[in-house]
Amino acid sequence: MSENTPGSSPADRPTRAINGLDTSTGSQQAPAHDAPAAQTAGRVKAARDAGRRFSRVSEEQWGYDPAEVDDFLDRVDAVLLTTSGDLRSAPGVSSRQVRERVFDRVQGGYDSAPVDARLDELEDQLADRERDAFIHEHGPQRWEEHLELLGQTLLGRLNRPHGERFRQPSQRKQLGYSVADVDVLCDRLTEHFRSDEDLDPSLVRKAVFRQAQGQRCYEEQQVDAFLDRAVELILALR
Q1: Cβ atoms within 10 Å of 28's Cβ, excluding its own
Q2: Residue 43: which pLDDT band, with cuts at 50, 70 and 90?
Q3: Which domain holds residue 134?
Q4: Would residue 3 count as lying in a domain?
Q5: Residue 166 maps to a domain
């Protein structure tokens, strides 16, 4: 979501699921015609001043580029502060794009942990807005159909045997995620989907896998894509 770290990946109730997914759910005043834009800009600045004072690492350490972080979060804040609710008018700031956002690293930059925590919060808020917008436009029945299809796709892969859930890298010596580590997470997801317990998306977001080679590893890109869809379902079913 926020950085590419070798060997790691980004994880209502997705719980009633495996045998039948339950998807219920003192400056110059701006001109009058610019007032809405000016108000939004003011709210974005207020949100940043009030809630985005991220600590920095030391000058010898590497952290997220502050300019990139501030610019991206300004755009997300602007979307969340609008009253239209039409997220399609703000490309680049969907919940998925927040989850997949990568920042450059610079010396003395922002500490990654609080930035990642804020991105998780924003992803949750955007996912809620996107769900509401979808239901408003297409109706609850279409939403349930969407969730059922997504759930079936995920459960189909989770039900595969250990060691066969994902592809192996095409190159024999290419590094990938440890099969054992990924299968442990998949087993935990399966248990949660079968139970009536709430599933915390941090189980997937904070998952870390060791690196391996050959038959002991899964292709990273395919695992990451699956985990993105898992987070999408978890947030949608809340």
Answers
A1: 5
A2: low
A3: 36-236
A4: no
A5: yes
